[in-house]
Write a structure and sequence with these properties.
The protein is of the alpha/beta class. Helices cover 29% and strands 26% of the residues. It is built from nine helices and 16 strands. 45% of the residues are buried. The structure holds flavin-adenine dinucleotide.
Amino acid sequence: MSAVLVVVEHDRGAMAPATLEAMTVARSLAGQLDATVEAVTIGASADELAGQLGVYGATRVHRAHDDVLGDYGPEAWGEVVAQAVRALDPAVVLATGTDRGNEVLAQAAARLDVPFVANVTDFRPNGSFEVTRVRWGGSLLEIASVDDDGARLATVAHHAVDAVPADDAAAGEAVAIDVDLDPSLARTVVTDRVEREAGVTLATAPVVVGGGRGVGSAEAFAPLQELALELGGVVGCSRAVTNNGWRNHTDQVGQTGTRIAPDVYFACGISGAIQHWVGAMASKQIVAINTDPQANMVTRAGYAVIGDLHEVVPAITAEIRRRRG
Ligand code: FAD
């Protein structure tokens, strides 16, 4: 009987919640394909996860160990998945639709020279293996069919399904899988870890004050920070800002940054390019501050102030303080 094989995303043994979404989809696919659900864990730090994977339906958990697998590394993880596919010949390989999941399956697909579909929301596995997947940062749904007779590699779009345990837990039998990894695979390695500050985050903040290229410099973000503090919010930014090194990538809103959904988003000196917009469009209200009345962000915002942000932002903060006494 063939298998639907789930690549378990974890960080030093802490399983990513998205893995359980992939397990939930794997059970549904396995039912349609008359296959088993199996999983592969990468690195000894993930050895303890077999039991939990059994609860989500894994009959077997293949554990890969190697010195190169002490921490996350896309090349080494991708090679493990490629070797697991050659050894186990699964019908479908699923991973998480996260940065890591997509990176690992892209690595594996390139090594196996097979197609890979990322961020799938719906699978129709029989026949031509048709899928619906998210493109353009969530602004487009695409129907695609995978034209390959071998294993089908796909990632499950994050939050497309709720993670649900199996009605009856499976054995989650832990078995070793032999992998042969060249030390040179450790090309991309984790060298440092930074603890994020506790408290309000960009993804959950009720107010985000975002700055773009129009802010002009790292120092010129100070008035945006003041406005954010006044409103219990945080500062965000566009990619032009992170590219210029004015702020850290953790502050970036957009397709390759964070998706935000605050009550109010102040978009200051941001043109509203599609890649930024897809990260900001879930905001309940947008106030655009821009010198250009034709900027995309201005035409899409609920409210707009046409003017120099260096004057407008401090004026808003001053007015809020005046009204609060
Ligand atoms: P600009 O487009 O240069 O706009 C600056 C704006 O500031 C203009 O509208 C101007 O009128 C206004 N302005 C100038 N001076 C002032 C002033 N004094 N007062 C008021 N307004 C002023 N971008 C993201 O933001 N997030 C992403 O995740 C992202 N991902 C990407 C992924 C890919 C694959 C690619 C190709 C691009 C991505 N980008 C992303 C980049 C995106 O396409 C835009 O280049 C970027 O968003 C532009 O940033 P900006 O609006 O700050 O700069």
